[in-house]
Description:
This protein has 427 residues and is of the alpha/beta class. Helices cover 20% and strands 29% of the residues. The protein contains eight helices and 18 strands.
Amino acid sequence: MKNYFLLFWLLLPLAGVATHVNAQPAQRQVSVIVSPDHEDWRYGAKEEAVFSVQVFRDGNLLKNVTVDYETGPEFFPSVRKQGVVLKDGRITLKASMAEAGFLRCRVVARVEGQEYEGMATVACDEALIRPATADPADFDSFWTRALADARRVALDPRMRLLPERCTSGANVYEVSFQNEKPGSRIYGILRVPNRPGRYPAILNVPGAGIRPYAGAEYGDGVISLQIGIHGIPVTMPQDVYANLSMGALSGYHSMNRNNRETHYYRRVYVGCVRAADFIFGLAEFDGSTLAVTGGSQGGALSIVTAALDPRVKCLAAVHPALCDYAGYLNGRAGGWPHYFRTARPVANEVETLAYFDVVNFARRVSVKGLYTWGYNDVTCPPTSMYAAYNVIPGPKELKLYLTTGHWTFPEQSAFITEWLLKELVRE
Length: 427
């Protein structure tokens, strides 16, 4: 099984803008390179990190370039300097942190009216990071009740063949099924091998935003179901999703965030488990081998689904969002969507969001998982992701790609796919 397709969702936006591709940023004429003096980018608390900053144009150091820079904990810089002239195009900066977390050196060069940014974010005793978000005493009973209530609603699965998307080895369908109440549906793209047999399955859960879906391909030996979360078909014209993104579904992640019964993510989390219910109802499914994967919001949903559904055998979570909202209330970075970065919580908000914070699902993940991210992520800060990762009790593997922000290398995408397929075959 060598010719596997890369995951479609890894090239999609994972933080909410559906029209931009979340691939590695394009090269620019001027590059700002920030390099820490430890090759593994790891330090102890109070240990001084030394950053070498170099500004290049056309492969050469750019003389007399003007830069602004800041150093300190991510989103909480303690040193800021503006208008610093680098005569030979380079400078050395030093910084440290007193406690566990992530220390960032960010540099912006100004050249002919354009800005060029570079950064390096290093770990300081990252294994000691723990969640700031509380674990509600009735967390488990709340979600047990939510799933039980949803499952009283008939699944009512529907499948529509998409002949133009079918291949010589697989049939492709747009599917839907009821979610937490009558008429509330989850839509997705199902890909099923067309040879007789029973197959393992991968559930792809989506990054943030509102968009159509093409389905995920892993070769012709695996069932895949890629879902949307908004209760709308996933094969409509792009302008429909753009209008919803700017209209009725704008800011969906913040809807009713001070009411645990009506917060938007309640139906989303339940819907991911209902997607597993749908897979288990397929005649072509082998009846046991289910993986779940996604990036950003989808990384969060992968952890949530694995925590809520004991039928999940393994997961792969890429730069998971929705981790440790309360970090900002404790003077450190919290996860996307950064509820408390610039605003104080309203009544019941902190308590409500604890039921949806990925750190509390992470505490309950017992199955094998692959987790992968980079240290330069400003959408899902590494402090927030480690807050979740460090409390996972199940077997876990962390694959770091240090320089990445909120995007993935092609090699990283390939590694994730190969890891999932090996785990499924192992079953």
